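Thought: the user wants the 3D structure for the chain below. I'll pass the sequence to the structure tool as-is, report back what it returns, then summarize two notable features.
Action: structure_tool
Action Input:
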Amino acid sequence: MTVRFSVFMPMWNDTEWLPGAIESLLAQKHQDWELVIGDNASTEDAASVISKYADPRIRHHRWETHTDIYENHNRTLLLCEYEWVQMLSADDRLHPDCMQRMAERIEAERAGASQLAMVIAASARVDAQGRPADLDYYGHQRIMQIRDGLYGPAEWFDVMCAPGQTPWNAGSVAMLRSLLAEIGSLYRPEIGLCADVELVLRLAAYGNVAYISEPLLYYTVRGSSDMGPRALRNLSEGDPSTPIGAAWASALRVHERSRPVSRLQRGHIHAAIARSHLQRALQHRVMPGGHGRRGAAVDVWRAFKLSPGIMLSTWRLATALLAIVAPARMVSWATRQLTNRRRDEASLKTASLGL
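Observation:
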């Protein structure tokens, strides 16, 4: 039986980007798919753009009411019909091999004893002109290194506990639709900024994760994204949880109901959350809406309570002191230096590959 994908595109306006996303789907080597576009009561004329593509696999549903971005994802998902579902944003582009590579992994695991919950591929971050934009997206933060292969629920938790930012994005995740029906919803709006990470962690409680280390999605980094405002809101409102901390707490509860979570793994999770509090401590000093030294001190204390061992690292102790004691201009300078270092490392890597 061939692997069939329902690609769902929750959108609001963004009609200038829409043709590129649709055309990247039409260019797929694997052609057994449908595209379901959930139009969140756009003020732009999306229908006239979509009507140019006379393909019966493309369906456009315009909702009469505008809703939260996550709720629009959830209601658009309900329109999907095929076995595997994959989200695609209007401003992102699929590599022509994306679905074929994912289908091959799904076929390879069908004979196994364990259920496959997801196939996840790495992503390439690009700007509006298609140029590499990792530095714009990640800044001074490092990117996780995830090996190609199959992971069980506990193994995937360990992978996601590693320091750094994920090398994948929500659009490079294909999920078993029957599991999404079982867990009740795609995104949990109350999680906020890291709802996509929470979903991938939560869904791993129900089966294995196949990871493809080759970038199969081009994720567009845009200044107009709502990620920045949501991150600032978490900072300015004094939320006791960081966005990734809220994601981990939610996913951990799901895993605890389905499998034993060892004390060691719980410690790894607490360390991952603690690192996010140290990161937010620096943000309190330099970002709009931050609460200065007081906010930084509170986040450093939360990091220590979660994982005292974090502070045994000279690097992290220096980070904590920088966040609490140093003048704001020194914190900004240190952050710029780290970003420049990442830029130099990226340039050396590109040169070594002959690109």
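Final Answer: Structure generated. The chain has two domains: 5-227, 262-348. Residues 5-227 form a domain with the Spore Coat Polysaccharide Biosynthesis Protein SpsA; Chain A fold (CATH 3.90.550.10).
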